[in-house]
Design goal:
By secondary structure, the chain is an alpha/beta fold. It is built from 5 helices and 5 strands; from the N terminus they run βββαβαβααα. It has helices at 69-83, 103-111, 129-143, 148-160, 164-173, and strands spanning 9-18, 45-53, 56-63, 91-94, 115-118. Strand 2 and strand 3 (56-63) form a beta hairpin. The two termini are 16 Å apart. The relative contact order is 0.21.
């Protein structure tokens, strides 16, 4: 993949977010205590599935379920393929989650004439969407959404803060540099 133009690469992955997310750090006046609340007990979770290109987030979807083959196929068919129309040179890159390797997922990508590759096992350092999730979660922690509806409402604005400049930096961080 080092020989490929990074502008072709679209990295896919999923991440979990939930209603117990809170800031890890706080500030207070000297001698004062920083007060905050961490939820205890019942909490709810969303799975966010996304695609990151060098121009930023290309497609995303959230669901209150784990990533199964059916969920990932829905993302491919309903979000990714429409977002990649007109990009015949796109190369989708995924990790080795069994849902990513499902036959129906491969068939859908091939039917849409989208090339795909898998990252080596245990290689999050080669996937620029990992730092993207970190920035997204940092933003969501500051919002401290305590209901699924509030979390879903904060997700769109949080994804919108991910810029092309961020994406290009993450691509470089992972070793994907544009050709000279």
């Amino acid at each position: 993949m080092a020989t490929l133009d990074p502008r072709r690469l679209i990295f896919l992955d999923e991440s979990g977010i939930d209603t117990r997310m809170t800031r890890a750090y706080a500030r207070a006046a000297p001698g004062e205590r920083a007060v905050g609340k961490v939820p205890w007990g019942h909490w709810e979770r969303l799975t966010v599935i996304g695609a990151l290109g060098s121009e930023g987030v290309v497609a995303s979807m959230s669901i209150a379920a784990a990533t199964s083959g059916a969920v990932f196929l829905a993302f491919i068919e309903q979000a990714l393929i429409p977002a990649l129309r007109g990009r015949s040179d796109a190369l989708v890159v995924m990790d080795n989650l069994p849902a990513h390797k499902a036959e129906r997922v491969r068939d859908a990508l091939e039917a849409a004439e989208i090339s795909y590759r898998y990252l080596p096992s245990y290689s999050p350092d080669l996937n620029p969407i990992e730092p993207c999730w970190s920035k997204l979660k940092g933003r969501l922690r500051t919002k401290a959404a305590r209901t699924l509806e509030a979390l879903e409402a904060e997700l769109g604005p949080a994804l919108a803060i991910i810029t092309a400049q961020d994406a290009q930096g993450w691509f470089r961080l992972c070793g994907y540099r544009p050709p000279n």
